C-alpha cells in the first residue's frame, strides 16, 4: 500500500495531524491501520497483553504521557506484535532495543529511547481515547504514518 501522509492531508481536509516529532524505529517507516489504545505511564504490562493478541493489521497507540524515564516497548513486545499481525506501534514515550527493532518488519514510532524497562504491574487503561500532539486517538479510527508524520482519520481512506 503506497501513500504519503502529505498526499492524504492534501486530499482529506478532515485529517488530524499529530504535532509531535516522532522518530521511526521499525523497518517499516510507512504503516497504517485501525487504532487500538493503551494508556500507561512507566508500566507496559497492558501493552504487552494487547500485543499478545491477534492484531489484524491494527496499530497500537501507547500513551505513556510523553515520559522518557522508562521504555514501554522493546524487542520482545515488538517481536510479539510482528508474530500476531500488528501493523505498527506508536509510543508517546520511550522504547528500547532500537537496533533489534530496526530489523523487525513493523512500523514503530516513539519519542526516543531509554534502556531502562518499565514496571509490569498492569496499571493503566485499554481502548479508550488518548490525546497527545493535538490529536485524539480513538479506538477504531485509522492511523497513517510515514517519514513525514502521523495523521488520523475517523474512517479508512485506503
Report on this model:
There is one protein chain. The chain has helices at 5-11, 45-51, 75-83, 98-101, and strands at 16-17, 23-24, 31-39, 59-63, 71-73, 88-95, 107-113, 125-126, 130-132, 135-137, 142-146, 149-153. It is 17% helix and 34% strand. Strands 1, 2, 3, 4, 5, 6, 7, 8, 11 and 12 form a 10-stranded mixed β-sheet that branches. It is built from 4 helices and 12 strands, in the order H-E-E-E-H-E-E-H-E-H-E-E-E-E-E-E. It has 158 residues and is an alpha/beta fold. Helix 2 (45-51) links the parallel strand 3 and strand 4 (59-63). The chain is globular, with a radius of gyration of 14 Å.
Itemize the secondary structure elements and their pairings.
Layout: H1 5-11, E1 16-17, E2 23-24, E3 31-39, H2 45-51, E4 59-63, E5 71-73, H3 75-83, E6 88-95, H4 98-101, E7 107-113, E8 125-126, E9 130-132, E10 135-137, E11 142-146, E12 149-153
Parallel strand pairs: 3-4, 4-6, 5-6, 6-7
Antiparallel strand pairs: 1-12, 2-7, 3-8, 3-11, 9-10, 11-12
Amino acid at each position: 500500500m503506497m501513500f504519503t501522509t502529505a498526499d492524504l492531508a492534501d486530499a482529506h481536509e478532515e485529517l488530524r495531524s499529530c504535532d509531535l516529532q516522532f522518530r521511526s524505529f521499525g523497518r517499516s517507516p510507512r504503516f497504517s491501520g485501525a487504532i487500538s489504545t493503551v494508556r500507561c505511564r512507566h508500566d507496559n504490562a497492558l501493552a504487552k497483553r494487547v500485543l499478545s493478541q491477534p492484531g489484524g493489521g491494527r496499530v497500537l497507540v501507547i500513551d505513556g504521557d510523553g515520559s522518557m524515564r522508562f521504555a514501554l516497548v522493546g524487542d520482545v513486545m515488538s517481536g510479539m506484535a510482528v508474530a500476531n499481525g500488528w501493523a505498527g506501534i506508536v509510543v508517546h514515550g520511550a522504547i528500547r532495543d532500537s537496533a533489534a527493532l530496526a530489523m523487525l518488519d513493523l512500523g514503530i514510532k516513539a519519542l526516543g529511547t531509554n534502556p531502562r524497562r518499565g514496571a509490569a504491574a498492569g496499571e493503566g487503561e485499554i481502548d479508550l481515547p488518548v490525546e497527545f500532539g493535538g490529536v485524539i486517538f480513538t479506538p477504531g479510527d485509522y492511523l497513517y504514518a510515514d517519514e513525514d508524520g502521523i495523521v488520523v482519520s475517523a474512517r479508512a481512506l485506503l
